[in-house]
Design goal:
Blueprint (H helix, E strand, L loop, with lengths): L1 H7 L7 H26 L1 H8 L5 H11 L5 H14 L4 H28 L4 H7 L21 H16 L4 H17 L5 H27 L20
Helix pairs in contact: 2-10, 4-9, 5-6, 6-8, 6-10, 8-9, 8-10, 9-10
Length: 238
């Protein structure tokens, strides 16, 4: 009787953290399935399709777009905002710290996966016919760091972070991030599966950091600063 009553409550019965774990598991599973499908069906075909276009104004446009996925812009920017406003404006300071943290963590995770998985970049496929992974081989060469896409991880982590901080501009941030991610495939720097994995890595990083550490950064009315962050701000600005 009690069991059926609990079941009738649906997802409301589950504690919040369990629902989040379920959602994250579903997202990761869907991403893995997509990456496997893309590996066999789309990756090589898209690279071969875009390779003949990789010159002239087409290439110049997408090269300009892809620059927005370089993490240094946001790492330096986030630190500058935090350092400048740390003793002046807590709201702006914690926003800078949030941006820096999401980009730094997603970038570090992307680099770890790149090193462990050792996937050959499209240029190796185009030049030598090499396609696939060589995991745990200690590859540090740029040509063997394709999976996941670091630019895509940065672009999506920045877009989601800024969307949380400036909700009205969310469409602009998301569209820009998607263009950056697409540029990596168009320029034959990554495969579609690399970009999908990097994008999800960026989204997951922001989601987890926001839920567990930085929710206060997006709450403009909050006067409570989590204990773990109190040493980062002067007493008068907590």
């Amino acid at each position: 009787m009690m069991k059926s009553s609990l079941e009738a409550q649906g997802t409301d019965y589950y504690p919040l953290h369990e629902r989040r774990l379920r959602d994250h598991t579903l997202l990761l599973s869907a991403t893995l399935l997509f990456c496997v499908a893309s590996f066999f069906l789309f990756d090589r075909a898209l690279t071969l399709s875009f390779q003949p276009l990789n010159h002239g104004l087409w290439r110049a446009f997408w090269k300009a777009v892809t620059l927005a996925g370089q993490s240094e812009w946001y790492l330096i920017g986030g630190l500058v905002v935090y350092a400048w406003f740390r003793k002046r404006n807590r709201e702006k300071a914690k926003s800078g710290l949030f941006l820096f943290s999401t980009v730094a963590v997603s970038g570090i995770l992307a680099d770890i996966f790149k090193f462990i998985l050792g996937r050959a970049r499209p240029k190796l496929f185009l030049q030598q016919g090499i396609f696939g992974f060589e995991p745990f081989q200690g590859h540090i060469e740029h040509a063997w760091t394709s999976f996941p896409s670091g630019h895509s991880a940065t672009a999506l982590s920045v877009a989601l972070t800024l969307s949380l901080l400036f909700p009205r501009l969310r469409p602009v941030f998301i569209v820009t991030a998607m263009l950056v991610a697409a540029s990596r495939v168009v320029l034959c720097q990554h495969y579609l599966s690399d970009v999908a994995a990097g994008s999800v890595l960026g989204v997951m990083t922001v989601t987890l950091l926001y839920q567990h550490y930085f929710r206060f950064a997006c709450d403009k009315t909050s006067t409570h600063l989590p204990e773990r962050f109190q040493t980062l701000f002067p007493k008068g600005f907590r």
